[in-house]
Structures are given as structure tokens and as C-alpha cells.
Amino acid sequence: MNKRKEIDLKENPVPDEIKGWSWGAFFLNWIWGIGNNTYRAFWVFVPYVNFIMIIYLGLKGNELAWKHKKWDSIEQFKEVQKKWTKAAFSFLAVCV
């Protein structure tokens, strides 16, 4: 990680109101990862690691998205992540 990125992360702490479960990251993991500049989501393609990574993305997805992408406001972040949640449940409905 370069020094500029480290500084940005320290200056941009994760607000408490966005912490929590991310259905978009859980169900659409690697697609969500691309959309939120969170490329560690590609670990879902590694056998045996994938199950752990899917759970991790669900638990920490909002925090990862906040840290790895530039957001104008908390409201914008919540709006975008709500769209990811809708897309995740739509995908689940189609699969079922």
C-alpha cells in the first residue's frame, strides 16, 4: 500500500452508521468488489478460502467499500449500497 493511500484511510475513518452487514458484498462478492474497488473480493475464487471470504465480505463489506472508494457523503454511500442490496436480492430471486 502506498503512503498516500495510508494517509487517506487515516483521514477518512469509517463512520459508525455505515458499519454492518453488506448483502451486496455477500451475494455478489466479486462483482461488488469490482464496483467498489475492493479487489480482495477475488479471493472467492480460491477453493477453501471462498467460504471464509464470502462471510468476511458480508461482515466487513461496507467498511471496505468506504475505505477503497471516494464518496461524497454518507448518504451517497448508503444510497449506492442500498442499490447493491437490491441487486443482490434480485439475483437471489432469479437463482431460486
Structural commentary:
The protein has about 100 residues and is mostly helical. It is about 65% helix and about 0% strand. The mean pLDDT is about 90. The termini are far apart. The protein contains 5 helices and no strands.
Distance between the termini: 40 Å
Count of individual helical segments = 5
The profile of the biggest β sheet is:
none
Mean pLDDT level: 90
Structural class: mainly alpha
User: What amount of the residues lies in strands?
Assistant: under 5%
Question: How many β strands by DSSP?
Answer: 0
User: Which spans of ≥5 residues are poorly predicted at pLDDT below 50?
Assistant: none
Helix amount: 55-70%
Helix/strand order:
HHHHH
| Overall geometry | globular
C-alpha-based Rg, rounded? 13 Å
